[in-house]
Amino acid sequence: MPVLRLELRVSRALATAVVLVHAAGAAGMLLIAPDATGAFLGLLLLCLGILAAWNRALLRGRGSVRLLELGDERQVGAVLASGERLHGRASARCHVGPWWVVLPLASPRRTVLVARGMLGSEEFRRLRLWALWGRVPAPARAGPG
């Protein structure tokens, strides 16, 4: 049974950031190669950014992770938009920041990025704790009175 069940929401901020970074790469490609080849490669970079934003931030692709089920001992279950369920174990090398959590899954090999806006603040805090410790702390008990 999962310890923590998290339903991911669309993150327009992450989608914008992904597209902007790829657009900057495309502009850099045009600076390096200001010809048809540079324009073509820049367009490919921009398309890659749009596709990445579509799948990872806007959660529109069939392989997009819509739900995470986190258990003890770094066990992870993921439900994709297609309805497929993945079960595996998160690597101990999770990357936790104030704005995102990156969960590299050892089996199946896949990386899940969860931005702060994809969860409520309390859910995101619990995800960060789980990523750091491999387990979710017990809920705090109400004080006396």
Topology diagram in text:
Elements: E1 4-7, H1 12-32, H2 36-57, E2 65-70, E3 75-80, E4 85-90, E5 95-96, E6 100-107, E7 110-115, H3 121-133
Antiparallel strand pairs: 1-2, 2-3, 3-4, 4-6, 5-6, 6-7
Helix pairs in contact: 1-2
List keywords for this structure.
elongated; alpha+beta; 7 strands; 2 domains
Question: How would you characterize the overall build of this protein?
Answer:
The protein is an alpha+beta fold and 145 residues long. The chain has 2 domains: 4-9 and 62-133; 12-57. The protein contains 3 helices and 7 strands, in the order E-H-H-E-E-E-E-E-E-H. Strands 1, 2, 3, 4, 5, 6 and 7 form a 7-stranded antiparallel β-sheet that branches. A hairpin with a 2-residue loop joins strand 6 and strand 7 (110-115). Helix 1 packs antiparallel against helix 2. The longest helix has 22 residues, at 36-57. It is elongated and about 60 Å long. The two termini are 33 Å apart. The mean pLDDT is 87.
Short description:
With 145 residues, the chain is α+β, with helices and mostly antiparallel strands. 39% of the residues lie in helices and 26% in strands.
Helix content: 25-40%
Order of helices and strands: EHHEEEEEEH
Our Rg estimate from Cα atoms comes to 18 Å
Morphology call: elongated
Please give the domain count.
2
Mean pLDDT: 87
Task: Measure the end-to-end span.
Answer: 33 Å
- Strand % is 25-35%
Largest sheet: 7 strands, antiparallel
* Count of DSSP H/I helices: 3
**Number of E strands:** 7
Uncertain segments are none
Task: Kindly name the structural category.
Answer: alpha+beta
